[in-house]
Amino acid sequence: MFAEFKKFISRGNVMELAVGLILATYFGAIIKSLVDHIIMPPIGLLLGGVDFSDLKLVLTEGVAESAEGAGDAVAEVAISYGIFINTIITFIIVALAVFMVVKAYNKMKKKEEEKPAAPPAPSKEEVLLTEIRDLLKK
């Protein structure tokens, strides 16, 4: 069973998939940081100093625990639509980046396909006829 697993894991496709998954994970983290820390602050500033990650619709206010510690603390219930907006923008940027990579890859593949193939070798009959023609010319 171990030998079968070793054969499976050492196949090229599995390794390529693992590398792709790792790179995609960190690419997503980079894009999230780009959106959260570089793109959204200027947009929030243009909209009146709003921090998008703080935008939310509070359904129930949170209540702090009392001084006696009776355990009556209640967590705030809110719909955090600002974080959702950040996530949508992150998705759009990632989708655009993936689109550009796929487009470049397809363009490269198309150029490879357009290269003219070498002309086919002449058939045995054509070679024989060419030799006969050359002999008749002599």
Describe the 3D structure.
With 138 residues, the protein is mainly alpha-helical. The chain contains four helices and two strands. Helix 2 (12-46) crosses helix 3. The longest helix has 35 residues, at 12-46. The protein starts with a helix and ends with a helix.
| Radius of gyration over C-alpha positions, nearest whole angstrom | 32 Å
Question: What is the CATH architecture annotation of the domain at 2-90?
Answer: Orthogonal Bundle
Number of strands: 2
What spatial order of strands do you see in the largest sheet? 1-2
Outline type: elongated
User: Sheet with the most strands?
Assistant: 2 strands, antiparallel
Give the count of helical stretches.
Answer: 4
Q: Give the terminus-to-terminus CA distance.
A: 72 Å
Mean pLDDT: 82
Assembly state of the chains shown: single chain
Strand share of the residues?
A: 5-15%
Poorly predicted ranges (pLDDT <50, ≥5 residues)? none
What name is given to the CATH topology of the domain at 2-90? Answer: Non-ribosomal Peptide Synthetase Peptidyl Carrier Protein, Chain A
Helix content: 55-70%
The SSE order reads: HHEEHH
Quick overview of this protein structure:
This protein is mainly α and 138 residues long. It has helices spanning 2-9, 12-46, 81-114, 124-137; strands at 57-60, 77-79.
Relevant terms:
138 residues, mainly alpha, Non-ribosomal Peptide Synthetase Peptidyl Carrier Protein, Chain A, two-stranded antiparallel ribbon, elongated
Which helices and strands appear, and what pairs or packs with what?
Elements: H1 2-9, H2 12-46, E1 57-60, E2 77-79, H3 81-114, H4 124-137
Antiparallel strand pairs: 1-2
Helix pairs in contact: 2-3
